[in-house]
Specification:
The protein is 91% helix and 0% strand. By secondary structure, the chain is an all-alpha fold. The longest helix is centred in the first third of the chain and has 86 residues.
Length: 199
Amino acid sequence: MITTVIAICGTLLGSGLTALTAARTERRRNEALERQQIREEAARDRTQRRELRVEHQKWRRDRRQAAYQSLMDAAHEAQGAIWQLGRLTLEPFDQHRYDIRRGAAIDAVRATRHAADAVQLEGPAEVAQAAEEYAKAVDRHIAPPVEALIQLSHGPLSEEQHERYRSTAAETNALVESCQQRFVPLARQALDELIEDID
């Protein structure tokens, strides 16, 4: 009988230890699964944040590139319109042609200023400053032909007036080219930095 009691107690004790060990093992497995799920959720969150950051950087780059390109296109159009206006200094004064070409040149210069304003919004600051200087240079470039044509409206230009016109037009054109040469590398660098941030 004592043997039976000892056997029953041993069996109960063994079953209890087995149940306790199984419960402890189950709890550890559940804790490990929870930790694994937390790590996986954190990894998914990091991946999602990284993808959102990359998407935002691509969107920012596209916006900047469009703004920079718009400025370059508008400045090119303005220079062409100003050149057309300047060509009128070689002919007898025609008020109608002057008004049409001056209007086109002024509109093109305004479009350049508007495009520079878009670059101001897109940045970065150094590119925005270069864009502002570029637009101002284009704006100043319209003055020489307008002044020469106003003088031409009062009578033929003297050789001195022609020379002054050519000189100031060359100076303002050189300023426009200098500002463009400053703007382009800065814009390219800003776009490249965004690509590097994406990578």
